[in-house]
Amino acid sequence: MKCSAFFAVHATLGSLQLASAMPHQVRADLDSCLNAARLSTDFPGSSGYASASLAFNRRFHYSPAAIVFPASDNDVAVAVTCANSVNLPVSARSGGHSYAAFGLGGHDGSLIVDLSKMKTIKVNSDQTATVQTGNRLGDIALTLFNSGGRAMPHGTCPEVGVGGHSGCGGFGLDSRLWGLLLDQALSAKVVLSNGTLVTASSSENSDLFWAIRGAAPSFGIVTEYRYKTYPAPPSNIIFTYSYTVSPTTASSIFSAYQDFAKASAPPTLGLQASIGTPKSGNKVSIALTGVFYGSKADFNTAINPLLAKVPQPQSTNIKTYGWLDSLQVLGGQGLNTTIIPDGSDTFFAKSLMVPQETPMTQASIKSFFDYIGNQGASSDTVSFPKLEQDFGH
Ligand SMILES: Cc1cc2nc3c(=O)[nH]c(=O)nc-3n(C[C@H](O)[C@H](O)[C@H](O)COP(=O)(O)OP(=O)(O)OC[C@H]3O[C@@H](n4cnc5c(N)ncnc54)[C@H](O)[C@@H]3O)c2cc1C
């Protein structure tokens, strides 16, 4: 397992860089407004602009009107007010890991509010955590654990930002146990499109609180969340059962996995199937992999019903880790993002959800694996479909 975008097809594609044509007066007025508040800003042509406007997914190139780096809630409110005064669209950027570069606006000409200077994380006496939205998942996990062994559910890539991850979902292998990251939010501070700063919770601006848990970018810029936290599980068993088999056998393994996830997998078991195309033609590689949060004996009880329905794996890897080590193994790198290199990728990604009541049919599973093992195997494009199960939550 490694830190990678889900369901992605990698390809090297050229892209056209469009120069944004911001009228001189708009630029001058925006500059003067942001400058009056002493906000650090990169405009086109400044030394930091080219690197600050790079997308994580290099398929996308956008030219923002400017990128502003607020250091406080009030700075964010000022930046939004300045953009309003010159009629510019605004986008927040937290970790910049949007698949389609929405942290850069998803088009040319936005004011980007880059939250990377807002990195406070605090575990409070009631075991809730206050997290500013310039933080990345790895740093949050480290600080929580080092503040009394606390943890929260979230995805595996340490560099993903909490702003986009929490604002739109936040799914990890621990989500069957605890839920999505957005489910943990107890309250949030939000700068609205008119530049006002409000608090949203179940008792204050409750309609906004509902909306930002899934569609935050459409309703404001969240500057800070207060989250529920959990004691980090002491025993985290990372397992992988791997096969390289015919498309027909892969279909039957996948069917057994789907039936198991739906009927008998306990919430302590996070499970996914990673599928690929080995070099030898007409074969499919399939790895049933995941994390069990509990003891070895309980893991054996939980996984045995699945193992009874699939062929003997060609290779098996099962290891028990402490909490932080398990996150590091899943992420494929260290958790402290101030010392790991900021990565990039070039990919096309697509997601498909099937409802628990009507999972993939035998016919659709068969045609999926036939495609992967035949046309998929002869393609020169690297692909890694990843099918995750979130049944029962
Ligand atoms: C390598 C990789 C691995 C991933 N792994 C997982 C995973 O394991 N599980 C999972 O669920 N997802 C995963 N994702 C998807 C990821 O959670 C989303 O792409 C997420 O939106 C990225 O958040 P970000 O803050 O880094 O991105 P950004 O590009 O900064 O923001 C994404 C969107 O959120 C908006 N936004 C950012 N901050 C705020 C804010 N403070 N207030 C309001 N709106 C805001 C932006 O404007 C943009 O529309 C992965 C993505 C990548 C690239």
- Rg for CA atoms: 23 Å
Q: What's the β-strand tally?
A: 19
Provide the residue-averaged pLDDT: 91
Ions, cofactors and other bound molecules: flavin-adenine dinucleotide
Question: Strand percentage, roughly?
Answer: 15-25%
SS field, number of helical segments = 12
Tally the structural domains. Answer: 3
Strand order of the largest sheet: 6-7-11-9-10
Structural class: alpha+beta
What distance separates the N and C termini?
23 Å
Helix content: 25-40%
Low-confidence stretches: 4-19
Instruction: Please state the overall shape, judged from the principal axes of the Cα atoms.
Output: globular
CATH architecture of the largest domain: 3-Layer(aba) Sandwich
- CATH fold-level name of the largest domain: Vanillyl-alcohol Oxidase, Chain A, domain 3
Keywords: FAD, Flavoprotein, Oxidoreductase, Signal
Protein name: FAD-binding PCMH-type domain-containing protein
Domain FAD-binding PCMH-type: 60-232
Family: Belongs to the oxygen-dependent FAD-linked oxidoreductase family.
Summarize this structure briefly:
The chain has 393 residues and is α+β, with helices and mostly antiparallel strands. It has three domains: 105 residues, 2-Layer Sandwich (Uridine Diphospho-n-acetylenolpyruvylglucosamine Reductase, domain 2); 111 residues, Uridine Diphospho-n-acetylenolpyruvylglucosamine Reductase, domain 3; 114 residues, Vanillyl-alcohol Oxidase, Chain A, domain 3 (3-Layer(aba) Sandwich). A hairpin with a 5-residue loop joins strand 9 and strand 10.
